[in-house]
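W.,

You were right to be curious about this one. When I first looked at the sequence I had no strong expectations either way, so I just let the prediction run and decided to look at it fresh. Below is the sequence, 621 residues in total, followed by the output.
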Amino acid sequence: MHGDGALAYAQWLHEAGRLDEAAASYRVILKRDRANPDALRGLAHVLAARGEYAAAVAQLARAGRAVRAPALQLELAQMNFLAGDPASAGRACEIYLQHRPGDPTALCLRAALREQRGDTAGAVDAYREALLSAPGNPAILNNCGLALRACGDYAAALDCYARALAAEPNYLAAWNNQGNALRELRREDEALTAFERALRIAPDDPSAHFNRGLLLAQLARHAEALTCFERAATLDPLHDDARIQSAESRLSLGEFAQATATLEALLDRTPDHAGALYLLATSRRYTAQDQPFIARLEQARKHHARDVQAQIALDFALGKVHDDLGDAGRAFTCFERANRAEWQRLKVPGREPVDDHADLRAEPASTWHAANASGDSGAGLVFIVGMPRSGTTLVEQILASHPAVYGAGETDYFNRALLRDGIADTARGTLRLLAERSEERLELLATDFIAELRSAAPDVERWIDKTPGHYAWLGVIQRLWPAARVVHCLRHPLDTCLSLYFQRFSSGHAYAYELRSLGRQYRAYHELMSHWRATLALRWMDVRYEDVVAEPREAARALLAHCELGWDEACAAPHRTQRTVTTASRWQVRQPVHGNARGRWKRYRTWIGPLIEELGVLAEY
């Protein structure tokens, strides 16, 4: 077989998926004609199909030298991108765009290269330029939506997804991406609709099941979320994130043995998986017999030498285990390393919390006068607030053990309301919410929350919101629900701050990754709480963590009295109460009440001088 016939046969083998035979056929042609551009291109695409991208690039480069066609520059750019050489890909892409300035494929590659180096705003510009040439292209609209979402421009992202779906109603990726954007905006009902549409299009799509699980977990519906994650893992046995989230849901449900089994199964396949090792470290207390686990963590840390996120997770895990073993020096070294890396990664910007809270303190008391005169005054509501890690989860668990109480956990209700209105979650955002909403809309905000809680537990007398950060919203709480009760949790400031410093947060609390910043945040919180105490007329109770762990039965009686509830023996043994707990204390709260963490800061006095200095007199407690 000669000439065009040999080339046609090689191309036929390629199209038939017989890649090895196609490669051999192209090489036979190239033995006779080393510069045959069609054979070089064909061989390059066969090699790429086999995942041999570097070899594919070499063949395309030879073809380019043979014919110098501009079109080859785009292929060369794409191959270099797949080969992991963004610099070469970028050069070839720009050469091609000099010849074809508005080519949407090349512009999308330019966007992808910009995204890869973290320039999401530049990626948006490239996608928008591509859309000038292909205005209704659903794939470009979908990718532009992803870049806009990464920039935080959710309105524009949702517009892109809507346009993509208008062009292609069964576009699975766009439904999934729309659902994720809506989930992040806390528009949960709309997100659920998007994921259900995705599952109608592709009932066996692991991503749709996984995304729906994330939404249900966000709603604290962990049993349902678990079903979704398990289904995703069944459909895609290599879906590590599904197994991690499955373990997370089991931990929240108190299924520690099953969660451990899930994580160990993942580690059997991927021994150095940082996320799985971190969850194992936080799922129980470690003893001197667990030295082999420390070795596993250290080995994984070496394995992930160039992965900053993995190193952060493993350093927090190592710190936690060393702290369990009482080795304060090693523990603090690991925690400090993790916090420094996270602080640098986040490059924490913005206003100091003390300044943010000053906006609230500057408001006249009349700002917080009740707006909900005709509606439900919130007599059944109990808000448990305080700094994170101050004992709020334990206090909620005690109260939620009573049959007449429903513990909703961290509802984050106000942040959700702000997101729906497109307002930042700051003190100024709080004031803007009040300024921009009419009295009728504020009343609707109040009644919607009560309806949400009552729909979850219609037959109880008290509903608990345990979002620690709602301490900043106490003025708004009085305005919306003047009859609500507040339980303010206090703990030694150094124990509170150290516990925060030792905690890896999935989001928020950026201040906690640096000791002086942590001290400033605590002072800002303390000043605001002093202001609220002097300004507001809410039914208020201070509860000290140290008193709760010293005399749990007496603390439970006082809490129930504050909530005007009779005694129930279950409140004396809150660790036996079966309920979903989603906070970092989900293992501790299921153990008998103890005071092991009381005064822990004393073991770390040597290393926390900046925190003590920043707290000043507050460090004396």
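Here's what jumped out at me. The first helix runs from residue 3 to 15. And, maybe more interesting for your project: Residues 240 and 516 are 37 Å apart (CA to CA).

Coffee later to discuss?

I.
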